[in-house]
Amino acid sequence: MPLQELAEKELLQLNHADIARAAILFTTPMCGTCKVAERMLEIAEAAGIDFPLYKTNINFTPRLREQWQIGSVPCLIVLRNGKLIRQEYAMRSVDYLYRLLKD
């Protein structure tokens, strides 16, 4: 199932929401590595990640890009209770992402 794409306004609300966990993949449309990362996350999600995974275009998220100091894409941000707990740039494998998100 494709990752749900959210706009910055929705992500800012998510950032302030009292949800246990969420993950956001920051991408750009022409980034091949981003497409691979997205597919790997879709597979990890199907394998049993029990919290929402989203994606967003970094070009349209200037506030979050600055707040979280995102330097490149793909970038996976993991939130717990609205707070950044992990920022991952290396999407090594589906197994790696699955274990990272299951922790």
TrEMBL record:
Domain (Thioredoxin) ranges: 23-98
SUPFAM superfamilies, per database record: Thioredoxin-like
Gene3D superfamilies found in the cross-reference section: Glutaredoxin (3.40.30.10)
Highest rank taxon of the organism: Bacteria
Entry protein name: Thioredoxin
Native species: Paenibacillus paeoniae
Lineage, highest ranks first: Bacteria, Bacillati, Bacillota, Bacilli, Bacillales
